[in-house]
């Protein structure tokens, strides 16, 4: 191999490395923005819906069977519990959306989203019929099919919390 060929191969490798790093950085930056503001949109939309009687009735069986949340019905009406949950979801979305102004507020919002989705995932285990075993394999019922997507939302919440926390460090 001559010197020109060796130099060309080294340059090609360097260019590929720089291009790969740029592509990876852009993909990651896009992923975090889409994840954060996608979560904001989801939490805002479902939060607003909690103020409707239909949504309050829809979540009632999930909350009523939850050992972590059922106590709220001793303090508030079905609509009151739904309104409280909706207000928390809207506040969580608002905090997350503040990322460019306050990474700390966004971290708090993302952490609240983690709690939100841990609670909703727990409904898979506490709601009758959400999941059951058939022939040794877990099968999701209607509620389980509705709730399983929250695993992805939980992962996105952890990711946005991590990114916002990193930004608070400087």
Question: How would you characterize this protein structure?
Answer:
With 170 residues, this protein is mainly alpha-helical. The chain has one domain (3-168). The protein has 6 helices and 2 strands; from the N terminus they run ααααββαα. The chain has helices spanning 3-49, 53-64, 78-97, 103-126, 142-147, 150-168; strands at residues 131-134, 137-140. Strands 1-2 form a two-stranded antiparallel sheet. Strand 1 and strand 2 (137-140) form a beta hairpin. Helix 4 packs antiparallel against helix 6. 25% of the residues are buried.
Key terms for this structure?
2 strands; mainly alpha; 6 helices; 170 residues; elongated
Produce a short descriptive summary.
The chain has 170 residues and is mainly alpha-helical.
Portion in beta strands: under 5%
Helix coverage percent: over 70%
SSE string, helices as H and strands as E: HHHHEEHH
Q: In which order are the strands of the major sheet placed?
A: 1-2
Overall tally of domains? 1
Number of helices: 6
Q: Give the strand tally.
A: 2
Q: What is the chains' assembly state?
A: single chain
The first-to-last residue Cα distance is: 48 Å
Overall SS class: mainly alpha
Measured on Cα atoms, how large is the radius of gyration?
22 Å
Shape: elongated
Low-pLDDT segments: none
Largest sheet: 2 strands, antiparallel
What do the pLDDT scores average to? 91
Please outline the helices and strands:
Elements: H1 3-49, H2 53-64, H3 78-97, H4 103-126, E1 131-134, E2 137-140, H5 142-147, H6 150-168
Antiparallel strand pairs: 1-2
Helix pairs in contact: 1-3, 1-6, 2-3, 3-4, 4-6
